[in-house]
Design goal:
The complex is a heterodimer of chains A (193) and B (422).
Chain A (H helix, E strand, L loop, with lengths): L1 H26 L7 H48 L22 H9 L8 H30 L3 H12 L4 H21 L2
Chain B lengths: L1 H6 L3 E6 L2 E6 L5 H11 L8 E2 L3 H12 L10 E2 L9 H11 L5 H18 L8 E5 L5 H13 L5 E5 L2 H11 L6 H4 L3 E2 L5 H15 L4 E5 L10 H9 L7 E9 L4 H13 L1 H14 L9 E8 L3 E9 L6 E4 L5 E4 L4 E11 L3 H7 L2 E11 L8 E10 L19 H6 L8
Parallel strand pairs in B: 3-7, 4-14, 5-6, 5-8, 6-7, 8-9, 9-14
Antiparallel strand pairs in B: 1-2, 9-16, 10-11, 11-14, 12-13, 15-16
Helix pairs in contact in B: 4-12, 5-6
Classes of the chains: A mainly alpha (193), B alpha/beta (422).
Chain lengths: 193, 422
């Protein structure tokens, strides 16, 4: 509320100053060269546009940083899914496994920092929300799987868990698909910067 | 002699027109006396309760062989059950089960005891009687009986099959598991694909074992041999009461594609013994000179459900043949015409929960055994599912709340239920 009041006051003050300068030129026709009011108008105009320019530049920088951080995190997640969480990865045939977890901090930051534009990046934001839910789901399932594997480590149970984890319709498979879509979206936006 | 018999109080002497005869006393039941005879005799007697009108069956088979021309098995056919009808097909099936080139069958049988014990652990040692649909050679039933007999020494085993010959084989293979085969094993010759027959069987079971729990089974992917597999499975699982359980074994695939369907067909194509088995019913019921090279396999994909393989016998002689059918009439078997010998499927694993939901059953436990996964898309396997009656089902057999049942805790944990709504 106070922030809004200050903003309104600032803009109103600048606009009022500009109006006063215009009035100055109009009501003081005797001046041969009304440099003072003209200079003041230019200063006030640049102050007004400067505020927006600085804001846009800041937003652009934040967005670029968020997208780059996201791209890095997605790349690392892809590496995890392709290697440590991949069905081709040779897992021990006996005993339980400790799995790596998917990373989500950059996605969290991108969502809470407001670095992404609500209008321009609405599709990306929606995907990020889905991705974040999926990562939390995967990590939670990995927790439970490890717990169950350690508490009941009969070879058949272990094999069942590994098979379920890597099956085509598994949660992990959905995560891979979502990750590919999100990576493509982020890359497209980075190339447009 | 007569006095001795009288003293035993089991017999009495009656006067007849021909003189005096020694007969069992009134109230002494024939089945009880036969039980003793079968158990004590060294001759291999066995019971078989016949619930089929053989003439009806023969008429049906004849009718099926009279159907029209078709190059893809939609005309003439030998429906499931008839494939095992008669001693020839029975022996051919025993040989197919032992064929080293019939890999899936061999591996399925080899891993069966291990998978069975894992799944039946969930019966918690409760005593069950055992009813086996499509008992086949009794090889798998023997393992089931070994487990159940430990908990219930007085269990009843009821193998149900259309083929009396197959029942005899099953009886011989399982007889030694129980102490009193005659009293405890009751082979029933019945086509369980017929609704009326299932109702009759239900009455028989109620009168035989009352409210005691029954474990039903349909093993060896038998359900996949029926064109209307869903309907048959629903009919059989409708027998389930609260105290009963159902053991279902199905062949599964991780994916569906025409390439995988071809691979599934290839499995059968490799086994000469399997081809001899599927053609044995032709030898038994027609006068065709059977050539196993004329057995062709048509593979296809049932959308979101299964890989379907049809074993067909095709006239590849280059000319029309006159074929004699069981009623001794002749049927024209034209060049390139086909006879459908057997249908089989490999069910898509991830849609099994939905399939089970439609049956009105609830999954108790399951196991999956993967066979020779030669392709990166995922191999074939066998799933053994222990089911029970789902009280949450509506009377129409469909789930009231479309609940999703996962195959086991691992499946429950990792199956992505959101996929359907995407």
């Amino acid at each position: 509320m106070i922030r809004q009041a200050i903003t309104i006051f600032t803009f109103l003050a600048l606009l009022a100053a500009m109006a006063a300068c215009v009035l100055w030129i109009v009501v003081s026709p005797n001046q041969n060269t009304p440099l003072d009011p003209i200079i003041n108008i230019l200063v006030i105009s640049s102050a007004l546009t400067g505020i927006f320019a600085e804001r846009w530049a800041g937003a652009r920088q934040h967005r670029s940083q968020a997208l780059n951080a996201l791209a890095t995190e997605l790349h690392r997640n892809a590496a995890l899914l392709d290697a440590d969480l991949s069905p081709t990865e040779s897992e021990p045939t006996v005993g339980p496994t400790v799995y790596p977890r998917l990373l989500v901090s950059a996605a969290d930051t991108a969502l809470v920092s407001g670095a992404l534009d609500r209008r321009r990046d609405s599709a990306l934001l929606s995907q990020l929300h889905g991705w974040r839910d999926t990562v939390y789901g995967v990590n939670q399932r990995l927790d439970l799987t490890e717990l169950l594997m350690f508490s009941n480590n009969s070879p058949m149970e272990l094999r069942n868990y590994r098979r379920a984890l890597h099956s085509e319709g598994s949660y992990l498979s959905s995560a891979r698909q979502l990750l590919a879509e999100l990576t493509a979206e982020v890359s497209a936006r980075l190339s447009g910067l | 002699m007569v006095n001795a018999v009288r003293e035993s109080s089991e017999y009495e002497v009656v006067e007849t027109n021909g003189g005096r005869s020694v007969v069992p006393q009134h109230g002494d039941h024939l089945p009880g006396r036969l039980d003793d005879l079968i158990d004590e005799s060294e001759f291999s007697w066995s019971y078989c309760l016949v619930g089929e009108d053989q003439a009806d069956k023969l008429a049906r088979l004849t009718g099926d062989l009279r159907r029209g021309f078709s190059t893809d098995g939609r005309g003439k056919q030998i429906t499931s059950g008839f494939s095992y009808w008669g001693i020839g097909p029975t022996i051919a099936w025993i040989q197919a089960c032992a064929d080293p080139f019939y890999l899936v069958m061999r591996e399925s049988i080899a891993s069966f005891p291990k998978r069975l014990r894992y799944v039946l652990d969930r019966l918690d040692g409760r005593p069950f009687h055992y009813v086996s649909f499509g008992a086949g050679t009794g090889q798998k039933d023997r393992e089931v009986l070994r487990v159940l007999h430990q908990q219930h020494k007085d269990l009843r085993y009821v193998p149900v099959d259309l083929s009396a010959e197959m029942l005899r084989v099953a009886y011989e293979r399982t007889g030694r598991i129980v102490a009193h085969p005659a009293r405890q094993i009751l082979p029933v010759q019945l086509d369980f694909a017929v609704r009326r027959n299932v109702a009759a069987l239900q009455e028989l079971l109620v009168r035989t074992v009352g409210d005691e729990p029954i474990l039903y089974s349909l093993l060896g992917n038998t359900i996949a041999n029926f064109e209307e597999d869903g309907e048959i499975a629903r009919r059989l699982t409708s027998l389930l009461r609260e105290q009963d359980a159902f053991l279902l074994e199905v062949a599964t695939t991780e994916n569906l594609s025409p390439v995988l369907a071809d691979e599934a067909a290839e499995e059968y194509l490799r086994s000469r013994a399997y081809k001899e088995f599927v053609t044995s019913s032709l030898l038994h019921n027609t006068d065709l000179i059977v050539d196993t090279d004329s057995v062709v396999f048509h593979s296809s994909v049932e959308k979101d459900r299964a890989l379907l393989v049809r074993a067909l016998y095709q006239n590849r002689t280059g000319h029309d043949i006159r074929m004699t059918v069981p009623d001794r009439s002749q049927v024209l078997f034209q060049h390139e015409d086909t006879i459908l010998l057997q249908v089989t499927r490999k069910y898509l694993r991830r849609t099994l929960p939905a399939f089970l939901g439609e049956l009105g059953t609830e999954l108790v436990h399951s196991t999956h055994e993967e066979f020779k996964a030669d392709n990166p898309a995922g191999g074939f396997g066998m799933d053994m599912l222990l089911l029970r009656h789902d009280p949450g089902q509506g009377t129409d057999g469909h789930k009231a709340d479309d609940g999703h049942k996962a195959a086991d805790p691992a499946e429950l944990l990792w199956s992505d239920t959101r996929r359907r709504s995407r």
